[in-house]
Each structure stands twice: as C-alpha cells, then as structure tokens.
C-alpha cells in the first residue's frame, strides 16, 4: 500500500516544483508566469509537495483567496503517477486541513481527466465561466467538508 502525504514546500523545493509545472506545459508555464506564482505560494506557505512513500510526485497550491473559502489553485502530479488515486488522496488531505467548510477548484472544460478526478474525489459541479480561455470554458467545483475545524 502506498503512503500518500503532503508537506509544506520550502524555498529549497522551488526548483523541484517549477520542474513539475514546466514539464507538464512549457508554454503555459512561461506565458502564465508560473515560476513567480510558485515562488509566492512557497513563501506564503500555500504550496504543498505531494509525496508517495516519501518521494515527491507533484504539488498543490492551496489558499483562501476564493471568497474566503478553501481554494485549490493548482495541482500537478507527475504524469507516470496519474490515474493511481494519488490526486484523490491529495484532495482528501487538503480538505482535512481546510479551515472552511467548503473547498473550491476549477479546471478547463477540455480537461476531462481532471473533471473525472474531481467527481471521483466527491467534488460537485458549481458552475461555468466563459471568457477566461477562449473556446475553453472554466468549470468550477466544490466539496463540502464535515470538519470540526470548519469556521465558515
């Protein structure tokens, strides 16, 4: 059985996290200035390394900027580790540490793999916004959390 865990990224992890993102989509990484976003998330303690048996396989950026609710800004898992339930377990771990009673995230309508992962992890469709990416609407999802820590 694989042990999935999260740990807060430190500035020492920056190259690793940037590489995960860059390897997925070099053009998007550069155009969206993801290195700056990643650096800020690490410094703000909002970036978590996803570990499988203590080996880094991806990262997640999580904050409370979306209407003061838990918000998964970005999750990247190394391609060879996808489809193995790691993302679902990472979602669960993020939800367990969330301070609100809902966690939101979004994905493009073209990202069928992410939509399936969100559905499998218990996220519900919340709505769609056109205009962010031409011809590829953004789909929003949320998950209600039953937690003693929830404050909202």
Automatic annotation (TrEMBL):
<dbReference type="InterPro" id="IPR016181">
    <property type="entry name" value="Acyl_CoA_acyltransferase"/>
</dbReference>
<dbReference type="Pfam" id="PF00583">
    <property type="entry name" value="Acetyltransf_1"/>
</dbReference>
<protein>
    <submittedName>
        <fullName>GNAT family N-acetyltransferase</fullName>
    </submittedName>
</protein>
<dbReference type="InterPro" id="IPR000182">
    <property type="entry name" value="GNAT_dom"/>
</dbReference>
<feature type="domain" description="N-acetyltransferase">
    <location>
        <begin position="4"/>
        <end position="146"/>
    </location>
</feature>
């Amino acid at each position: 059985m694989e042990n999935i865990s999260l740990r807060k990224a430190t500035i020492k992890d920056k190259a690793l996290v940037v590489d995960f993102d860059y390897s997925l989509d070099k053009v998007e990484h550069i155009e969206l200035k993801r290195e700056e976003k990643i650096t800020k998330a690490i410094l703000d303690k909002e970036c978590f390394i996803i570990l499988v048996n203590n080996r880094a396989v991806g990262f997640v950026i999580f904050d409370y900027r979306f209407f003061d609710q838990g918000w998964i800004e970005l999750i990247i898992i190394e391609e060879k580790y996808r489809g193995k339930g790691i993302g679902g377990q990472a979602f669960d771990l993020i939800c367990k540490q969330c301070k609100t009673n809902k966690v939101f995230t979004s994905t493009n309508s073209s990202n069928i793999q992410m939509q399936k992962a969100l559905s499998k992890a218990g996220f519900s469709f919340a709505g769609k916004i056109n205009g962010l990416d031409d011809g590829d609407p953004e789909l929003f999802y949320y998950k209600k959390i039953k937690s003693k820590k929830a404050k909202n």
